[in-house]
Design brief:
The protein is mostly helical and 141 residues long. It has a single domain, classed as Winged helix-like DNA-binding domain superfamily/Winged helix DNA-binding domain (Arc Repressor Mutant, subunit A, Orthogonal Bundle), CATH 1.10.10. The protein is 65% helix and 7% strand. The protein is built from seven helices and two strands; from the N terminus they run ααααββααα. Helix 1 runs antiparallel to helix 5, helix 2 packs across helix 4 and helix 2 packs across helix 5. The longest helix has 22 residues. The chain is globular, with a radius of gyration of 17 Å.
C-alpha cells in the first residue's frame, strides 16, 4: 500500500523540486524534530546510513540544513533545518497530507481511528520485530 502513496508522491517531488528520496525523508524528519543526527533518522526510518549521510551532505550544500557539532560529543553532528529548507518542505508537505487524506477517504471515522490505533501499536512494538531474521526461524514460529 505504501507504494501507492509514497512512490508517486516522491517521484513528483523529485521531478518538481530536484530532491532525492533520502533528502525528502530527511527534511520531513527535521521539520518534525529538528536537531537530530543521521543515525536518529536511520533508526526511525530504517534507511541505510550511507544514503541518509549523502542526503545530509546534499541538503547542506543546497543550504536547506545546517550541521552543528553535538555539545557532549564533537564527533556527532546535529542536523537543523534552515528557513529555506522549511519553506521547501512547506511546498511539498500539503500534497503529501492531501494524498494521505484521499487514501483514507474510503474509511469511516471509526475505521480511521481503528487503523491509527493499530499503526500506533505496531510502531510501539517495532523494536520487538524489526531486527528479526527473515531467513532464520524465530522462537515464536
Amino acid at each position: 500500500m505504501s507504494n501507492y502513496y509514497r512512490e508517486p508522491s516522491f517521484r513528483e517531488i523529485e521531478r518538481a523540486l530536484g530532491l532525492t528520496r533520502p533528502e525528502i525523508l530527511s527534511l520531513i524528519f527535521l521539520c518534525f524534530r529538528d536537531g537530530i543526527t543521521v543515525t536518529d533518522i536511520c533508526e526511525f526510518s530504517g534507511h541505510l546510513k550511507a544514503n541518509i549521510s549523502r542526503a545530509a551532505i546534499a541538503l547542506e550544500k543546497k543550504a536547506l540544513i545546517d550541521r552543528r557539532p553535538h555539545d557532549d560529543d564533537q564527533r556527532r553532528q546535529l542536523l537543523f533545518v534552515t528557513p529555506a529548507g522549511r519553506a521547501l518542505h512547506d511546498r511539498f508537505m500539503p500534497g503529501l497530507v492531501q494524498r494521505e487524506a484521499d487514501m483514507l477517504a474510503c474509511l469511516t471515522d471509526t475505521e480511521r481511528q481503528q487503523f491509527n490505533d493499530i499503526l500506533r501499536k505496531m510502531c510501539a512494538h517495532a523494536r520487538d520485530w524489526s531486527d528479526l531474521s527473515v531467513t532464520e526461524p524465530s522462537d515464536s514460529a
